[in-house]
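Hey team,

Filing this mostly as a record. A colleague (T.K.) asked me to run one chain through the structure pipeline before their review meeting, and I want the input and output archived in the tracker in case anyone asks later how it was produced. No errors, nothing strange. Just documentation.

Input sequence:
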Amino acid sequence: MYAPERQQEILRLAQESGRVDVLSLAEEFQVTAETVRRDLKALDRAGLLRRVHGGAIPVGRLDFEPDLAGRDAVAADEKDRIAQAALAELPADGNVIIDAGTTTARLAAAVPVDATLTVVTHALPVAARLADHPGIALHLVGGRVRHRTRAAVDAWALGSYGEISADVVLLATNGFAPDIGLTTPDLAEAAVKRAVIKAARRVVLLADSGKFGQRHFARFGDLTDVDLLITDTGLSPDDARSIESRGTEVVRA
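Output structure:
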């Protein structure tokens, strides 16, 4: 396959899935990772793709927000590993905020039925997974529910989080990077995420490595706001050390 044909196919794959990564493309086309990087660079220069850490996304997708089912299908195995590792961060008989997100929803699904703690969430998927746990005191924060994420936002949600002090928040994000921090496509969601960071004494970010380097419209915090990042082994050791040098502990599950 000639380079222009390969690049056309890479563009098609990116438009279909919303993202392509270097290693998968190298395996798909039986070429080296460096060849794929040259293809992505050419497509980026042509304005057809935007390079991100480890791969590329179609132009115009930086602030595109897939629906819940679409996001949940991305990096499913990695999200499961992150969720399992995050169980250790739940305080026994303590109180925790669980943010809206597909990885945090997987965490909620993994919480043992006999767990005893207080959970506060504004995410309907999280609440649904914990509602039948008899030992959990579940508090559902209200507000306008965004259909795309099933999360409550706006004044009611912000007011509720302003009245509590939790042991820990399990936080989600659409993108994270040392230079720009934590970002998400929607301003209302960003405001709630900012509020939950302030409402907890410890901040644990659950984010798969595919989100590293991604930037979205609404910024809601810095990596320095995060005490612990739980991610997967797709985040390189060098990038993990760069994050840790700023004071955030990193666990690669």
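Quick notes for T.K.: The CA atoms of residues 58 and 85 lie 32 Å apart. The mean pLDDT is 90.
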